[in-house]
Structure formats: structure tokens, C-alpha cells
Specification:
The complex is a heterotrimer. By secondary structure, chain A is an alpha+beta fold. Chain A folds into 2 domains: 30 residues; 136 residues, no CATH class. Chain A has 4 helices and 6 strands; from the N terminus they run αβαβββαβαβ. In chain A, a hairpin with a 2-residue loop joins strand 3 and strand 4. Chain B has 3 domains: 104 residues; 51 residues; 363 residues, Methylamine Dehydrogenase, Chain H (7 Propeller), CATH 2.130.10.10. In chain B, strand 11 and strand 12 form a beta hairpin. Chain C has 2 domains: 266 residues, no CATH class; 81 residues. In chain C, 66% of the residues lie in helices and 1% in strands. Classes of the chains: A alpha+beta, B alpha+beta, C mainly alpha. Chains B and C meet through helix 1, helix 3, helix 4, helix 6 and strand 14 of B and helix 8, helix 12, helix 15, strand 1 and helix 16 of C.
Chain lengths: 181, 586, 426
Amino acid sequence: MDRRNFLRTCSSLVAGGVALATGGLLATKASAKQGDIFWQIDPYTCTQCGRCETDCVLTVSAVKCFHANRVCGYCDLCGGYYRPNVKELNTAAENQLCPTGAIKREFVEEPYFEYTIDEALCTGCGKCVKGCTSFGNGSLFLQIDQDKCQQCNECAIARVCPSNAIQRVTKDSAYKLKDHA
Amino acid sequence: MRKLYRNIAIVTGVFILMLAVMLGMSYFQMRQVSPLETGVMETLKELNETAADNESLQQQIRELDLLSRKAYFVKDGQLKTGIYLLLGMALVLVASLNLYYKETKNLPEKDFDPIDDWLIKSNARRYLSWAAAGVAMVGVGLIAFQHLNLLKPSGETLVAEVQDVEAETALPEDIQPEAATDSLSTDSVTTEEISDTAEVEDAKPELKIASKAFRGNNSGGSSSARGIATSWNLKSKKNILWQSSIPKHGYNSPVITGRNVFLTGADAQARELYCYDVWSGELKWTVKADGIPGSPSSMPKVNADTGLAASTVATNGEQVCAIFATGDVICSDMEGKRLWAKNIGLPDNHYGYASSLLMYGNMLIIQYQNNSNAQILALNAKTGNTIWSKSANDKIAWSSPIIATLGGKSALVVMGNPAISAYNINNGGELWRVECMSGEVGSSPTAAGGVVFGASEYAKCIAIDGATGETLWEASDFLPECSSLAATKDLVFCATSYGMVCAYDATTGEVKKEHDLTTPFYSSPVVVDGKVYLFSNSGKAYIFSASSFDLITSFETGEKTFATPAFTDGMMVVRTDESLYCVKKE
Amino acid sequence: MRRIFSIIMGVLGTSRALAVARFPKPDFTSGYRYPEIVHGIPNETFWNVLDIVLLAGMMALVVWAAYRKRSRAVMVTVSVVSVLYFGFFRSGCVCSVGSIQNVVFAAVDSGYHLPWYVLLVFLLPILFALLFGRVFCSGVCPLGALQELVNVRNFRLSRAVSAALSTIPWIYLSFAILYAATRSQFLICRLDPFIGIFRLGGDLGVLTFGIVLLVMSIFIGRPFCRFLCPYGALLSVFSSLSWKKVEITGKGCINCALCGVSCPVDAIRAPQASRTKEERSAGVKRIILFGLMLPVLTFGGALLVGSQSDALSLAHKDVYLYELLQRQEAHPQQAEPLEVETFHALGGNVEELKEKVDAIRHDYLFYSRLSGALIGFVIGFKLLKLSLKRSRKTYTIDMARCTVCGKCFNYCPQNIKTSKNEKAIS
């Protein structure tokens, strides 16, 4: 019995030592404030492939279209708002590119129009982003809305993103906005 | 009381099952389909784009849009309610089951079952050993299978290669460069094409041999077609299958795939892609290049002998793409449905944009000739998205790209001013570049037996080793201006604007044979069926032997011809200044 | 790592250059002002602190309930709180089970900043296991708690089969480590069966799997914990060596065998060793045989899994992309997959990718051998342990398996007597 108890105590100590050593070692790697908690899209790498809409664990993706007003050209013929072969520049359903009508178009002054994203309707499909990046200034871009994101341990969209645009980020860089670019 | 709980449990259980299946299906739908983007809606919207202003159609779209929005939100709401209902029911089920089993809970299941620790251990040991042995067996089997597989495919390809070689030796006059040299590589587009469509047979069959771009499948000036007539007469209709008119003028050449003949025409009013039936010559459909964002409102200035539609279209058998002097690129499927269109920028080109398109699998290659920023673009033929692009700092040219088999691999060869260059076709990586051209380069290169040949009137004729980029020989006896070279392994054929045609020796560059025909040539020679077919601007047809370059026959057709003919099984489609006709032995 | 970084920077550089301002910034004359849009960032720090406090607090509560009170009611309460808070409210991420991968990931990738609380989420249950056993599994883990709460009746699987099946978690763990160490994917998170239930949505296949497991756990004790959970496997090692042991009763066992019936995870060991007679020398021989088998199995496992490393490496995005590129080159006629299209569009260089892929495949060879060795070792060790005979005088708890659910406390007549006596006294 003594022998067994001795062995047991020894292995307990070893196990405890291993656990503590691992913990200590990793603690030096773990950073107190700036751990990579969030997931975010780099808008400059994103190719608007459309998988953000379909691959998020949420029924309606946490990826939304953001709009950098300071980059926007306020165009009348907006590549992000209108379908490629649009006939008339009005807000009728048949002219809109957005499948859910999440972009609001408002007249500012001649010849400028303001575009605003209604996040509640946005599904993150990136169609408008593609249009804006191809024909306009690229002021529309996709971002993960951190309020909606579930912060999965591994982002389901990042796993299938063809351009590896989704990476782990720290709190300080929770959003990668184009406004300040 | 117990019965009641049991019944509740059963009822909720069944209910949960049904609800779960329903929710699962609905959830699946919601995740699969983008909420408001139904097929019907897309079709209607596309219809609206192509049709003239149609108020009722637009009204219909708006109503449908509203309807589908409503349906989506109702469904979303239902799903949420359903899930909460499901959770509630699950709670009820667990509770009722708990109550059902409550009385029996604290009793042992059977009579006291003294646990025989050792028996359990022995059994567990046995199971585990068997399972481990099973897994190991499967693993070893898998490895063995993989190793067998490693051996097998090489055997299979060997058989396939033998067949390939046989198939090609059965066509002795098939002097198509790739086919003769690269029986080992599997990526020759032409051989695949032949085998792909080989099974199709009916009364008026789809043609087995295609001519998918300017001067044949790879733009190289050769075709594997056979049985082409060597005489015909447009007046007496001898050996003429059909002759049709073309709605709008253009200098581009026809291309053929399946049973379709494609070409384009343009004037200041419209730019159009035409599809003719190869058997009847009937104009099947027309696709217009209009309503393209970024397209210039007024036509660019072009020379009368270039026109707005100088570039030949290209097809891969599924899509057909066309480009016009405005920089408009359109892509259609085989049924005449326009898939996409975009303007790649108005080319700054003082004669008019002339480079022809080329397709490689799913890729559309454009040698975008321009005074300001010449580029080579590779677009996805299905979507029009750029796959790669390459800025070439070259000066403007009017040459067309070709696909050549260099070192056993398909490569893109491009001629410009001042260089002939080869690129990796998959990503645009430069393989080699030889600076040898000058002046206005309008002729296109060709390749045979792994050697690339290029010539231009204001420079020279050059042969380059395709694998290394090393110059093999240079010559300047006779040089083409608009016409392009064609080649076999032994001879390089050249037709000039001043009436001289000649054959260079492919290995030395020495002029083997020359003919002074005293009539200008813009159209290019094509090597087909052991012969070289060539049309003069005035419309005289010349047929030479491909092995000796002796003139076999020549005769006037009566219609001015600037385009290069396209060849397929026993047929030749020729575009003249006025019409399109098909030659077939009667 | 530096190379990867430079590639990323290169990609960023080129695409930045593409983003040209085609239209000038408008000159507003009507006094239009740019709208200020604020994008919310949840206060994760607060919630993380709360997570850790609750995690530690609830584990301490379970320790108190198991060692002092011997009351199951506390475990049930903890389970309800855990399912509601960690499960439905915090929607499951990060959990201790998944944190294994973060830890492995941090160990191999210096570019990943392991958040402090993930480290705690990983370490705290292990420390508690080393001191008091698997109190985390009891009801603090939302996955275990969910199964515990829906369980109404325990139809026992053959104990021998269960014992053999308990090897699966180790195999699962080996592959999870393999994929995390090679930076391919987080297998455990991807296949987590209950996260879809907590989030009321997710991948349909995994969701179905979760529901099937949940329905199973109505009638079978904790199928996920016993036959799948890789963290449970890890904890069982520390738990079997724990400082304190859970005891069914403080009053002394009367060998009534009731507790053995109650245990949903077969963690109660009966007193008598065997009814089957066997020569001592046969037993010794078997032990020697399995002792010799241990290195053979370890080595064999390493060889077997190592030989599949190329196939396994397809789970890595880059390797898969390279494979797709190869396929595309072989069959250019086929439609181009999105991955390949994007690769070309971003100006990817196949040679560079090939280099990267070769490095990854090299990594894979090492780690797949390692995980194969681990699998072989675990099987060999299990076999060895199963051939050891022990004799006991009373019913005791196997700390490696016990999930501290507290069911046996209620079954033990000694405990019931005590509570009645206490009531009578008070």
C-alpha cells in the first residue's frame, strides 16, 4: 500500500508541476489587455466573394456593409446602389442592386446624393461593395459588426474566406475602417 | 397519473419531432437562399434591362419585391417562434418524462447486479484490442490502396497516351503543332476538345473540330480539319453550302464551335455579336453591346480599314466573348443570352482597336493594346471578373495573342512593340521576353514544334526557342504587314502586303520557296489538311501544298476578302467584305 | 513566420494601390456635414471577468457540495445557471473544451496573442481537477450541464463497451491538437454538437448531431462527456491523481451496491475483484505482453497516422488551395473554384505557395506522427490498465471517470439515514 501511495503522490506532484509549468509558460505569452479576442475583415484584402453572407453561424450574418462617407464621391450614378444596366436613376425596386434594399439614397444638393446603410436589413452579401469598389471610390466595405458577432473561437467565415481577409484582432483594432485612410 | 405523464411525453415527443423537421427545412431554406433574391426576381430584372421601357413589368417587379420582403420577414418570425416553441416543448417533455420515471427512480434496475470488475475489464480489453486491430487493418489497407493507386494512374495515362498517339498518327496530314509534339502533356486544349465532343452524333451533328478563335483554336494559324474543298464558285454555287448576308460590317474573322459560327459587326449606331447556324447559314441570334456602364457615348475615331469591329471573337464552347473598338467586352452563352458586359476602358488607338480575343478554359485573354497603358488581361469568362492582369510597358500594337505549347506546357505568347513575350497562362508570370520588334506591329505570332515565330514588316522575321526564349534565327527577306505567319514543323508561311508570299525553312530561316502573286494580302494563311489556304484582298483564293509550298490551285472568288477563314470538319467558313459563306464538298 | 508576414504585407500593399479615388471628394455648398457613425464594441473585459469569477465560484460551490454537503441539489442549480449563462447567454465561446486548441495554437504560433482569460478558462478546471476531481464537468461546463439536465433515466450500456469507447476522446484530442498545431482549423469548435442549440442555429449537420446526442442523453448518461469530450479525457488524467477524493458517504460503506446502479458514467468500482479464477502467472504474462505492446502500438500509431499526413494536410487552407490549383491546371476546361479565382486575382505566386505548402506538409508529417503516437500510446496504456487486477473492500469512486454529478449521494442509504436523523434532531 505504501509503495502505491508513494507512486501516486509522485505522479500527482508531476501532474501538478506540468500543469503549473504549462500555465506559467503560457502566461508569459498571454497578454493582459491585448489578446486577440475579435474577428475582423481587412477591407483592402476582401474580394467580396459573397461567402460572408452564407457562412456565418448566425442566420443573418454578423458581417455588414459599412460606409465611409469621407471617401464617398456622393455620385448620382452609384455603382453600389444601382444594377449594372440601370435605366433610370430612381429608387425603384428594379433598379436597386441591393437584394434587400438596405441602402438608403437621399438627395443632398446638386449633384450629390448621400447613401446610408440600414444595418438591420443588410445581409453582408457584398454586392454593393463590389459595385462600389469596381466603379466608385470603394467607400462601401464589409466589416464584422462586433455587437452582432458571437466571437466564435474559430470564425466560420474565416475558415472559408478565399483571400484570408478575416483575421483575429485585438480590441484596439476591432474595426478596420476606411474613413481614416 | 403515470399514464398521463407518459401520454404527455409521447404527444410532446411526436410534436417536437414534427416541428423539428419543419423548422429544419425552413432553416435550411433560409440559409440556402439569399432572402430576397429569388430566381424569378432576377429573371424579371434582367428582362427589364434588355426589354424596352415596360411599365407593367417594372410594376410587377416592385410588387414581387414587396411580396418577397413580406414573406421573408413572416418566415423569419415563424422560425423564431418555432424555435422557442420547440425549446418549451422540450422542457415539457423532459419534465413529464422525469415525472413518469419518478417512482421507479430510486429503485435498482434489476436485482442487485454485483459489478464484476474483472469481467468488465477483460471484455473491454477484448473489444479495444479488436477495434484497434480493425482500425490498424483498415489503415494498412488504405495505405496499400494508395500505393496501388500511385502505380495505377501512370499505367492508365500510358494507355491514354498510346491512344492519343495512335489517334494522331491516324491523321497524317494533321500538322497542328501542339498535337504533333505534346502527346505527353494532358493540357492541350485541342486534343481535349476533340475527345470531348467525339460522342455527339446526329443527322446534322455538332462539329467535332472547332475553330475557337482568330486563325484556329489557339490563334496559331492551323486546324486539324480535313476534307476541305479545293475549288468552289459563288456564282454557280458549286461546293457552296450556303451564303448569307451580315447585318453590320466588320473586319473580324468567323469562329466555329459546335454548330455555331460567331462573328461581330459594328457601325456608329450599334455593335453586335452574331451567331449563324453552320449547317444552314441562318442568323440564329444577335447580342448587342449596349447599356454598358463606362461605354463612350460617341464612337472613337478609327481608320476605314480597321473599323469598330476588327477584333475576332473567342469561344470555349460554353461562352463566347467579343470586344469592340470602344473597349466594350460582352460575353454570351451559346443561346444568345448575354452573361455579362463591361467596358475595360476606351482604348487610345489611332487606327482603331484590333487585337483579337483568346479563350483558355474558363479564362478570357485580352491583349489590351493602348497608347497609354497597354495591358494583358485574363478575365473569368463566366463572370467577367479579372483573374490576373499584367501591365506591359510596350508600345501600341495591333497583334493578337496565341496559345503555344512550350516545353510541354501551354503558354501565352504575345507579340508587341518591342518584344515577343511568353507568359504563364494561369497567372501571367513572364516566362521569357525577346526584344526584336519595332515600328507598327500588326501581325500575330505562331508556333510549331515548340518554336515561336513572329514577323513584322518594319522589323524582321524571328524564330525563338519556346522553352528557353533563345533566338534561333532571324530573316528579313519577306515580311508581313497585316497578315500573320502560319507554320508547320518544317516551314513558316508568310504573306505580304506587296504581293510576295514565301515559305521559310523553320530550322534555318532560309527562304525555301517564294511566289510573286502581285496582289496584296491582309488575310492570313491557314495550314489545314496538308495544304495552306490563303485569300488575297481582291478575293482570289490560293491553295498551296504545306510540305513543298507549291501552288496547287488558284481562282477568283469574286468577293473582297480581308478576314481569315475558319475551318471545321469538311467545311470552311469565309467572311468577305459583303457576306459570309460556307464551302463544303458536294 | 516572417515570410508569411511579408506575403500578407505584400498583398495589402498591392490591393491598397488598387483602391483609387475615382471621384473627387464633393464640395458641399449647402453646409452638409458628414454623419458620425459609431460602431459598437462590446465590453468584453467586463464579461470575461464575470465569466472567470462565475467559473471559479461555481466550481468552488460544487466542491463544497460534493465534499461537505453531499447534496445533488447544488449541482442541479449550478447546471441550470451554467446552461443559461455560459450556454444561452454567452453562447458558448470560449469554453474550456475549445480552449485546448487556443493553448496549442499559442504554443506554436508566436503571432497569436493568447487572451489571459482563455488561459484561465483552460487552466482553472485543470487545477480544480488536480485538487478535487472533475468538478468542472459536474455542471459548470454548459455541455455537461445540458446533458445532465435533460437526463431522466439511465439505461446502462454494457460497462465493457463503455470502457472501450472511452478511448475515442483521446483520438479526438489527438486530431484536435494536430489541426490546431498546424494552424489548420479548430476541429473541436467546428464539431461542437451543442453550440448550435445554445445559439438556436448553425450548421445543419452539426445541429442535427447535437439534437441526436441530446435525445440520447435523455436515456443514457452523458454520451458526449464519456465518448467524445477531449477536455474530459485531459481532466481525467489530472483527476485520477487528485489530492482529495470524492467519497459517496462519510459514514462508511455497507456494500449495498445501490450506488453502482445510480452512477450514469460507470465511475463506481465494486469491492470484489473477480469471480473468475485465473492463474497468477497468466495474469503476469498478460501484463508483460501488454507492457511490450505499449511501445509497439505507439510506434505503429505514429507510422500509420504519419503515412496519411498528406491527406490530412488537406484540412489546411493553403494546402487545399494548392491542390485546387493543381487540379485546375490539369483540367483548365473545368469551372474555376472561387479559391483559385481569388488567388489569381490577388496576384498569387504558385511557387511561393508551393514553398509554403511544403513547409506545412513538413509540419504535418511531424504532428501527425506525434498524434498517431499519442493515439497508439493511449490505446496501449488503456489495455495495460485493463489487465491490472485490483482488490477493494468497499465501493469506491474512480476519480478518472467521476463527473461529480452527485447522484450516488442520494442513493446511498447511509446518507439518507443521516439526513433523516438530522431532521429528527433538529
